[in-house]
Amino acid sequence: MQIVETENLTKIYQTGLKKGNIIALDSVGLRIEQGEIFGLLGPNGAGKTTFVKVLLGITRLTSGSVLINGLPPEDSNSRERVGFLPENHRFPPHLTGSGLLLFAGQLHHLPETTIKERSTHLLRLVGMERWGTTKISRYSKGMAQRIGLAQALISDPDLLLLDEPTDGVDPVGKNEIKEVLKRVKSEGKTVLLNSHLLSEVETIADRVAILNRGKVVRVGTVDEFTTRGLRYEIEADIREERLEIPENVGKVIRVTTKLLVVELEHIDGVNAVIDQLRMKRISIKSVQPARISLEQSFMETLSDGEERI
Question: Domain 229-291, what architecture?
């Protein structure tokens, strides 16, 4: 089931200047499925924050269509089961953590008993149970992010929109937030994650999309982004053996005494390479697709421009 669906979504900001208008989003078409963690990536100015603002009805689209749970942003019911943590948020400093959750719950028209029950659960979930009665003005940046995540979850949302949720959080806290998001996903909820920390997105997201200059450049699973096509790494006790494979099978990219990297013409070529190694009585320890980091794939995609869709 698609919880977010956009078709030819375009947002143009009128500048009134000679240099022309700003196209923040250019015919964006995305489908985000229920129960997945979806990473929205892109350089500064790519349109990520504008995309989220359009989903929330904060910014009106210029053309195209947007649906959240089958409803357009103009319908306030589309936001009834949506949680949001913006980047660089500013919560009222005089409130305590528990006070913020009470305020957020009241904005969602939740019964007070429900707010209290969920506040206790969420403070524990984000590791802030000891600080619920402390004023937000005394929070560190990491603590403010944690309480921000808790307020985004107060309504038990179906869709969670997070803009840089681990900004300013220490490594232990980042890992805890990732575990929280995994638990949210296990409950069938959807997470749309904007983040510059691609190493974190790589470990938690199911699919990602890259925006550049307002356009969707590429969409796919994390595996599709980080797997090098038909390139394989074979860990083996190669020693000084000379290795060659037929051209119709593939080619050797790199070979050391412990590792062979090959690029194959077709998937069945893996068996042919393994057979060659066994014929030479070479002990094989592992065979796996060659991978690159999501960050490297991201940079390569941007350098390729709009040719990779």
Answer: 2-Layer Sandwich (3.30)
